[in-house]
Amino acid sequence: MTDVPTTYSYTRGETIQFFVEAIDDFVGSVGDVASVTAALKPAKDGLLVPDTSVASVASFTATFQAAAGDVGPGWVLRIAPAASGNLVATTYITVPTFNMASGDVFKGDPVIIEVGEST
After folding, report:
1. N- or C-end of the chain: fewer Cβ atoms within 10 A?
2. CATH class of segment(s) 6-116
């Protein structure tokens, strides 16, 4: 895991998306991953992962993407424009979760999502 979370900036009403590359040492074979989930939550104190008791404000849909060129296989995590339009402009955080076919669950690195007002 990284020490500094990756940050993406979006405006309300646009597609929020990012790519999570499958890392063999972390998830094993891509075929071992049953699903990838991620929930968007307000960041605690602006940059920290909130407690599990904090309700999510949106859920990402995950779509598998095969390897292409220098980019390995992974998942595009996306929140549709209609859902992002309902968000309050603030800083959010999400932690991709890899649900393995074996029943094991692995957490990815936290990702910061900054949502600003649309102009």
Report:
1. C
2. mainly beta
What span, in angstroms and rounded, lies between the C-alpha atoms of 101 and 27? 11
AA letter at 4: V
**Domain boundaries along the sequence of the chain:** 6-116
Q: Counting beta carbons within 10 angstroms of the beta carbon of residue 50, is it exposed (0 to 12), middle (13 to 18) or buried (19 or more)?
A: middle
Q: How many angstroms separate the Cα of 45 from the Cα of each of 49, 57, 67, 83? A: 9, 17, 36, 23
How buried is 39 (Cβ within 10 angstroms: 0-12 exposed, 13-18 middle, 19+ buried)?
A: middle
Per-residue pLDDT tens digits of the chain, which is 119 residues long? 456 788 999 999 999 999 998 876 555 677 788 999 999 999 887 667 777 888 999 999 999 999 889 988 899 999 999 999 999 999 999 999 999 899 999 888 899 999 999 87
Of 115, 113, 112, 114, whose CA–CA distance to 4 is shortest?
A: 112
Determine the 3-state secondary structure of 30 from DSSP. helix
Q: Tokens 């999400």, residue?
A: 94
